[in-house]
Amino acid sequence: MRLVNTFAAAALATGLASAAFAQDPTKVGFIYVGPVGDFGWTYEHDQGRLAVIEEFGDAVETTFVESVPEGADAERVLRQMAQSGHDLIFTTSFGYMNQTMNVAKQFPDVKFEHATGYQRADNVSTYSARFYEGRHVIGLIAGGMTESNIVGYIGSFPIPEVIRGINSAYLAAKSVNPDVQFKVVWSNTWFDPALEADAAKTLIEQGADVLMQHTDSTAPMTIAEEEGIIAFGQASDQSSFGPNAQMTAIMDDWAPYYVSRVQAVMDGTWESTDTWGGIDSGMVAFADFSDKIPADLAEQAKAAADAIAAGELHPFTGPINKQDGSPWLAEGETADDGTLLGMNFYVEGIEGVIPN
Amino acid sequence: MLRLEPRTETKTLIQALAPAAAVLITMVVGGLLFAALGKNPFEAIHTIFIAPLFDPYSRTELLIKASPLILIALGLSFGFRAGIWNIGAEGQYVMGGLAGSAVALAFWNVEGAWLLPLMAVAGIAGGAAWAMIPAFLKIRFNANEILVSLMLVYVATLFLSAMVSGPLRDPDGFNFPQSRLFHDSARLPILMEGTRVHVGIIVTMVAVLAAQIFLTRHLFGFNVRLLGQAPRAAAFSGVNAKRLTVICLGLSGAMAGLAGLFEVAGPIGQLQPSLPVGYGFTAIIVAFLGRLSPVGILFAGMVMALTYIGGETAQFALGIPSAAISVFQGLLLFILLAVDLLTRYRVRFVRRGEV
User: Fold this and answer.
1) Predicted TM-score (pTM) of this structure
2) Are residues A107 and A220 in the same domain?
C-alpha cells in the first residue's frame, strides 16, 4: 500500500515537474456580444476560437466571455482579461471600439484585434469581412425566386455595414428582376429572437415571400419555415432551423484569420493591420445551395461568387444613382472602399428612408 | 395543506442574520449547480463571491457597477413605500443620460468647471421630466403609472437611438450611431489614478445618507410611509396624495436621470445606443432586496454588483457559461426573498377543513 502511494506521489511529482518545464501556452481571449449559442454572429466567432484550439492544441489556452453589453461593462471585462495574462484578445463587436482602445493603451504588451471597427493602434488591429459580396449572391437568388416581387429585409442598426448589405442585395436582385421591391424593418438590435420573429411576421404580412436578415438569431428562419416561404441564413448555416426555407447562407468564417493571427503572436511577427476580407479570402463563404433554386439561377449565383472572388465583378459597379436620383457611380465605375465604409444612403429604387 | 402565518415576534438577531444565511444557502445550492456542470464548486464560488473582494481593481469596479443600481433603487424606494410604482426607471435613466450628453456635446471642446454641474442639472431634469409624464397622467386621468412608466422605457430607448443616429451623431464617426467622445471637462473626475472610480460614487454615498435621514427624521418620510400603509388615514391627516405622487415619481426620475448622466460622463464617456443595460429594472430588485431601506439598498446593490463582476471572471477564468451565471443570480434573489419571507412568516401544515 505504502509502495503504491509512493509511486503515485512520484508520478504526480514528475507530472508537475514536466508541466512546469513546458512552455507557457499562448493565452487568447474573446469577448462576445451575444451568447455562443446564437447560431449566428457570435457562434461563428466561437467556431473560430475552436479552430484555434484544434490547430495549436496545448500550445494555446483560449477563454471567452459571452453576452457582454457594449459599454461600461466591456471595458472592465477587457481589462480583467488583459490583467490575467492574455497575450491576444479578440473583441468581436463594433461597440467595443473605444473600450478596446482604452484598455489597449493601458496594456501595451497585450495585442488586441477589434472586429468591424476603424480605430487602430500599435497593439490594436482591425478586421472585418466584405459581407456585401455575399449579399450580392443571395440578392440574385432572391430576385430570381420571389413571386410577389417583395423581399423582406430585417435590419439591425442603420450603420454603413447594414446599409451596404441592403444596397448590394437590392442591386443584384433588381438586375435579374426589374420589378423587385425591398421592404426594410429596423429592429435596433443584433440579437432578440422575439423581436426578430415579429419583424419577420410583419414583413410576410406585407407580402414578402423572401426574407433576408442582418440580425443574428435564427428566429426569422424559423418563421420562414413555418410560413412556407424562403430565407437566407445569417452568419451561420441555419438549415437545421429551416430545412425547406433556407436557400443558402452567408457564412462568416473567421477560423483562418484567427489561426493566422495566433500564429503571428507565437512567432513574434504580429503587427497592427487592417483586414477586410471577402469571398476570395474565405472569410465570406456560402452554405450549400438548396435544390429548390432553379438550376440556371443557382449557376448564375455561383458564377457571380466566383467572379467576385476572382476580382472580375464588383457588386457596386456603375451606373448607380443614389435614392434621390443624384448620380453616384458612372458607367463602369466601381465604389471605393472609403465610400463603402461610410455608406449612409440607399441606392435608387429602394423605398423608405434610413432612420435618422 | 400548507399555510403561511405571520410570526407573532421576529427576533432582531434572526432578521439581521437572514441575508447572510441566504447568501450561504446560495453558495451551497450554486456550488451544486456548478458541480453538475463539471466545474470545481469551491473554485467557482470563490471566483464569483470572494475573489473580487480581495482584488484591488475589482473592488473599485464593484463600486462603479453598484453605484447606478443604488442611486436608482434609492429613488424608487420612496415611491414603493408610498405605493407608487415607477417601473420605468430605465427610461428615466436613458433620458437623464441623453439630456446630460446633449449639454456635453453642445459645449464640446469648451473648457470650464461649470460644464459638469450643468450636465448634472440637465441629467436630473431629463429624468424627472420623463417621470412627470406618468405622474401627470396618473393625477389627471388616474392612468396606471406602472403601465405608463414601463411603456415610456421603450419610447426613451428608441428616442436615444434616433438621437445618436441623428443630431448627436459623431460627425467624424463614419455614420456609426454614437456621439463624439466627451472632452475632459465633460468627464467625471477620477478619484483614484488607474481606476475608473469617479465622483458620482461619492454622490451616491451621500444620497444613501440623505435618504436615511429623510425617511426617518423628516415629515416627508413619514407621509410616504403613511400613504403606502394607510391611504385613508393619510388623507384624513392632510397628506396630499396627488402632490406626493408627483414628488415620488419626480424624485425617482431625477435620481435615475442622474445615474444615467454619471454613466455617460463616467465610465462610458460618450453617448451610445447601448446605454440602457437594464440598471433601471435591476434596481427594482435591489430596492426590494434592501427592504426599501437606504442602508439595505447599499448592501443589496453591492451584492448584485459582486455577482456580475465575479460572474464575468468566472466565465473567462473557469469557462462557466453566462447562462449558468444568470441562473446563479436568480437563485440568490430567490433564496434571499424566501429566507426573508420565512423570518416573518411560518409555514404550518393544516388539515383540510380545519381553519
Assistant:
1) 0.82
2) no
Q: Is residue A263 part of a domain?
A: no
Are A169 and A57 in a shared domain?
Answer: no
Domain co-membership, A227 together with A336? yes
Question: Does B316 sit within 8 Å of A77, measured CB to CB?
Answer: yes
In CATH, what number is assigned to the domain containing residue A111? 3.40.50.2300
Question: What residue has cell string 443570480?
Answer: B329
Q: Which of A63-72, A310-319, B332-341 has the lowest mean pLDDT?
A: B332-341
Answer with the one of A114, A129, A144 that is the final residue of a domain.
Answer: A129
Of A65, A71, A83, the CB nearest to B57: A83
Beta strands in B115-265 (DSSP E): none
Q: Is residue A35 part of a domain?
A: yes
Domain that holds residue A140: 131-251+283-341
Output the CA angle A341-A257-A314, nearest 5 degrees.
40
Domain spans, chain B: 67-288
Reading the block at residue B355, the C-alpha cell is 381553519
Summary mean pLDDT of chain A: 91
- Joined together, the cell numbers standing for residue A145 give 425566386
Whether A161 and A304 share a structural domain: yes
How many domains are there within chain A? 2
Q: Are residues A87 and A99 in the same domain?
A: yes
pLDDT band of residue A20 (cuts 50, 70, 90) is very low
Claim to verify: residue A63 and residue A113 sit in the same structural domain: yes
- For residue A11, the model assigns a pLDDT of 45
Work out the minimum CA distance from B311 to partner chain A, whole angstroms.
9
Write down the number of H helices and E strands in chain B.
14, 2
Query: Which of A107, A119, A49 shows the shortest CA–CA distance to A82?
Result: A107
B chain contacts of residue A65, beta-carbon cutoff 8 Å = 312, 315-316, 322
Size of interface A-B (CB pairs under 8 A): 96
What's the whole-number mean pLDDT along residues B312-340? 89
A21 pLDDT tier (thresholds 50, 70, 90):
very low
CB neighbour class for A146 (10 Å; exposed up to 12, middle 13-18, buried from 19): buried
**Prior bond of A319 cis (ω within 30°):** yes
- Asked if A139 and A111 sit in the same domain, the reply is no
Rounded distance between C-alpha atoms, residue B93 and residue B160, angstroms: 11
* A10 or A102, greater pLDDT: A102
Note whether B272 contacts A84, CB cutoff 8 Å. Answer: no
pLDDT at position B231: 81
Of A107-121, B95-109, B340-354, least confident by mean pLDDT is: B340-354
Number of residues written out for chain B: 355
Question: Of A74, A99, A129, which residue sits at a domain end?
Answer: A129
Q: For B173, name the nearest residue in chain A, comparing CA atoms only.
A: A342
3-class secondary structure, B162: helix
- Chain A: residue whose CA lies nearest to B167: A356
- Mean pLDDT of chain B, nearest integer: 90
Residue A123 forms part of a structural domain: yes
What are B's interface residues with A at a Cβ cutoff of 8 A? 57-58, 61, 64-65, 157-158, 161-162, 165-166, 174-178, 181, 194, 196, 263, 266-270, 272-275, 277, 308-309, 312-313, 315-317, 319, 321-323
Q: What is the mean pLDDT of residues A197-219?
A: 95
CA atoms within 13 A on the CB side of A87: 18
Asked if the structure places residue A125 within a domain, the reply is yes
pLDDT at A336: 93
**Partner-chain contact A66 B267, CB within 8 Å:** no
User: Which residue in chain A has the smallest CA separation from B171?
Assistant: A342
Picking from B158, B175, B315, the nearest residue to A65 by CB comes out as B315
Tell me: do A78 and A138 sit in the same domain.
no
Is residue B310 pLDDT above 80, yes or no?
Answer: yes
Q: In terms of DSSP bridges, do strands A181-186 and A210-213 run parallel, antiparallel, or are they unpaired?
A: unpaired
From B199's Cα to the closest Cα of chain A, the distance in A is 16
Model confidence band, residue A185 (pLDDT cutoffs 50, 70, 90): very high
